[in-house]
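Data deposition worksheet. Section B asks for the primary sequence of the deposited chain exactly as it was used as input, without tags or linkers unless they were present during the calculation. Section C holds the resulting structure in token form. Section D is free text for depositor observations; keep each observation to a single sentence. Incomplete worksheets are returned to the depositor.
Section A, Depositor: J.P.
Section B:
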Amino acid sequence: MNRRILFLIPILPVILTPAAVHAQVPNKMTLVEQAGVTTANYPVQFGRPFVQGEIADYPQAVLNGAPVATQADVKQRWPDGSVKHAVISFLIPNLTSHSTVAVTFQDQGSGNNTPLSQAQMLGGNFNFDAEMDLTNGSTITADARTMLMQASGCQPWGGSPPPVCALWTSGNIAQTIILADHSTNRAYDIGFDSNRSFRPIFQATFWPTINKVMVRFIGENADTLALQTQTYSLALSTGTPLAQVYTKPTFTQSGASRWTKVFWIGGAPSAISIDHNISYIEATTFVPNYDTSVAITGSAVNNYCNNWKNANTDIGGAGNWTKNMPVTGSRPDIGPYPDWTVLWLYTGNSCLEAAARGNADLAASWTVHIREGAPGKIMLRTDPPGSSTALGHVVSVSGRPTVSGTGNFNTSAADQIHTVGAMGTQGWNDDMAHEPEVASLVYTLTGDFWYLEEAWFWASYDTAGELNYPPYQRFGALGMLNHSQIRAMAWQLRNRVNTAFVSPDGTLEQNYFNTLVDDALACEEGARNITTTAYNGSTAWNLCRNQFATSDSEAGFPGFKQVKPGTVTPLHQWAGGGADFAQDEYGVCSSTGGIQPSPCTTPTVLAATSFFESDYLLYSLGRAKELGYRSGALLSWLGSLYTGMLTDPNFNPFLIDNGRVPTIKLDGSYFSTYADLKTGYGPTWINRTSLGSGNDPDGYAAYAIAGISYLGQEPNGPAAWNFMRGHYNWSVFMNLPKWAIAPRGGAGIVTSSCDLNQDGTVDALDVQLSIGQALGQSPCTGDLAGTGTCNVVDTQRVINAALGGSCRLGP
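Section C:
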């Protein structure tokens, strides 16, 4: 082995003298046939984001170097007019058994979007029909073919209300329509009483070349005028003549919930896997800058695949979710995205794609779905009063300023949601403080309207839901964040920003959620007296400045109740916190004791706040800035706490791993220096010399890493990041990478495991260090392959990274 390493040394000056330049990540995808079946004209449809400036007009797929006829339904364009996101549809002329197809893209002048007519979709070649039968004593039926026949044409999705036959994709390769009546007529709504609380929705994709139709059945119980629990048996049928494809003997559907099932008329295509190329997707900014050097272990993939295969995935089943969302602790569904979704993004594994899609489908059982059914409700605050712009869309706080979900807590009569019967949750209890990111990334990669609308429902409910109660209502229709807990703010902002960013151009929803993002950021700047941005002096800024920074009216909200009138925390803890946070498990008399109010130490702390929740918020603020939202001032404000704790010489940086951070001393004054702040921790923490959760891919240190990755451009940000990068066991992300987010570059920032000397670049010096470690001349810190030793494989990986390639961390 040593001879092989030594052989490399003479050639290093030749190949490494020029500076390694990383070329733009190629826009390439990989499809693999997995069922062992050969198919002519195999149908493929997916969502694809694009780097700004890459595709001027419309994308065309190129398969193994050969362009194919491509339908491109462009949903978003960048400010320069180039394609930002599109739904791509094409046919693989001949997909052979177990073959691999490389997909690249080039520009074309047309999206091939001439729509099929109603007559064509009703033609005998498709045998199109789909039927839902609900039985509870009597049987009630919804029929897709009847809805299509009776529709007065099909128009692009949008409007108020959206058309009964709405076009999502248009063209003769793959045309998707959505059949539903969201008007006040509710012509096709059904039920077992006069309220007709069940709305049947059919989403059908027609493939003319192969005469197949993919049908997504959607059962919705969401109308603001008719919410109630419904119990029934269910049968689904497709084709002409109708053939039953699914039955469920009994099902209780809560109000404000949905369900879905997908079947094919003409036979489903064989199974394929699609690797969307995480490196390219993150270059578009549609996902965070995940560390692509992390190689996911096979055991991690198998574990999550088996979890999905063994879960209850039927309608109403929990899948891999924790149905009772308030359950605390690290969970696979909490984070930037759920575990299974991030693993799918990394690997392209078809089982993980099924888990990501399937879990997003099952999440519709949470009672967070409210669709505006009343006339006279506006969607945007700029809409004329009394107009019906919200009709058929997700509920808006512009039209119902005092709405508080289906509970109508302190809601005005005009804003109340009409529950016409018992509601219930069937155990699906939501909680914003533990809310997952269900659908935006799944929509991005699939282009499926179902997931987009799910993202809209969740982000809407986050503003108009049960926690929109006083004092929020007194501010009117502002999109301020929920101040019950810092983590609630973090996940609400994450969902809102992600949803706004992926919403198609020109939609009411894009405008609505963008406005709510601005409201939230302006409010939080006002509360912290940040006067340096365009938000200063706005309605939201002034209201939140007057409320949260100059009074103590948030008593009852544990994260905020000790904020002193007219002040903000000098060290920029997000909230003043409370005595309860200084007296919980972190302050007990034990080796894990953190804060010092307990009898076993000399008390120094009156109040503390939740620091791991601030980690979440730091990530969400950084992600918002990365997506182009104006959260930079708030990111700098909160980020200074992290850079201070990690770089101030009078503080112990390993305290970053504690779940709480002190805020107020016993004398009632704030901790105002980092030397002072250090005295607020117990002796076992003050003397820490490592990150206690440094080997936990879902622990406090991992949460901090994700947020600190966005501080590279902040004062002392590179040093703060490099400390975390150098003291955390990065290899644990091979089993779970959802927090493995790195800076997008910057001077002196260590972003690679191959940067052994941590100077911000991978170069010949790192190669020489790797060689020395492999020869046993220095301690082994570059075990990239995870073998327990440093060897030639590790050195080869460092060389590859130094030449501009990937630094692979893992087997």
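Section D:
The longest helix spans residues 508-527.
The chain is about 25% helix and 20% strand.
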